[in-house]
Amino acid sequence: MHSGPGRVWRITGSPGRLHAHIAGTMGRAHVRMLCDTGAFCNCISGAFYNKHLASVASLDKTHHQQNLVAASGASLSTIGKVNANFKIGGSTFSADFFVVDHLTHDVILGVEFFERTDTLLDYKLKRLSLHSGAINTSFYGHGPHPYSVYLPENPDPS
């Protein structure tokens, strides 16, 4: 549904099917990481932290009241911040993660990580490239990716 020039053009689809996940390791655990281009920061679930990282990565509790909001609009309860090492595609990375109670994903990689590592998500080839293509790994989602993008008939190139 779209109309005249200067309007906001709607992108529709099934958001649950457009997510990209990559496999990695954190601590000694294999982990499925959500690549979330809508998240400004990296997050890790409190349960995953307690089970796999508490013994090797100390929690900075000065960040326990960080105001984070989920895509649904719900407030997220943070219990601190941790710097953790993890592996993707055989390479080791380090990043700061907010530790969030009752997070629905074990690990969420956000824009902070993607910008710092020059990440490219290629949905057509289902590949994630880091450091301008020096490191590549496949990602997986939730089946096919049906979506439609509505654009004006004569888009303004400026």
What does this entry look like structurally?
The model is unreliable at 1-14 and 143-158 (pLDDT under 50). The chain has helices at 46-53, 111-116, and strands spanning 11-13, 20-26, 29-35, 43-45, 68-69, 75-76, 78-88, 91-100, 107-109, 120-122, 127-130, 135-138, 147-149. It has a six-stranded mixed beta barrel with strand order 2-3-9-4-8-7. Strands 10-11-12 form a three-stranded antiparallel β-sheet, with no helix packed on it. Strands 1-13 form a two-stranded antiparallel ribbon. It has 158 residues and is mostly beta strands. It has a domain at 20-112: Acid Proteases (Cathepsin D, subunit A, domain 1, Beta Barrel).
Fraction of residues in β-strands:
35-45%
Q: Give the oligomeric state of the chains in this entry, treating copies of one chain as homo and distinct chains as hetero.
A: single chain
CATH superfamily of the domain at 20-112: Acid Proteases
- What's the overall geometry? globular
Proper CATH architecture of the domain at 20-112: Beta Barrel
Number of strands: 13
CATH class of the domain at 20-112: Mainly Beta
How do the strands of the widest beta sheet line up side by side?
2-3-9-4-8-7
Order of helices and strands: EEEEHEEEEEHEEEE
